[in-house]
Design a protein that fits this description.
By secondary structure, the chain is mostly helical. The chain is about 80% helix and about 0% strand. The longest helix is centred in the middle third of the chain and has 44 residues, at about 60-105. The radius of gyration is 18 Å and the shape is globular.
Amino acid sequence: MTLKTPTPKQLFIGFSKIGISGFGGVLPWARRSLVEQEKWISAEEFNALLGICQIVPGPNIVNLAVCVGSRFAGVFGALAAVLGLMLGPSVIVILLGMLYEHYSYLPAVQGMLRGISAVGIGLIAATGFKMMRNEFSFPPMLLVVVLTVIAAGFFHLNLGWVVLIASPLATFLAWKKAKQT
């Protein structure tokens, strides 16, 4: 797969589409856009960048925009990507907030919001499965997935503890995977 190199303008437009398309959670749209449609980064690189972006403070998708933007166009690329990501949704949220203030008591509005939350959960789950599919190329890495699910889901550990527990195994397996290729 040949990857493309976007300009700051293309980063702004691409991340604007991501921001507006994924209301309530843009990660599924970001992966689809960056990896499958625009082909700016590979699936493996998306997974690696997202892993880094989840560890550093701030919203994951904003961190991802900074990483992708700066990779291709430095500071201007990072600014373009973040501005593209945030501008449209900010305007939409302000307008929707004004509408919600006036109509939130209506049962139809309350039902619509419950339906939207179900869609968001489905999109996030689908993206997780797509990302996990890439890990099947090196099955031992699935141990990290199992360890993470147990630590977070069963023991209810917070992100910091999950990272501290899973990182040594993930680092070791990534090193083994890199040696094989």
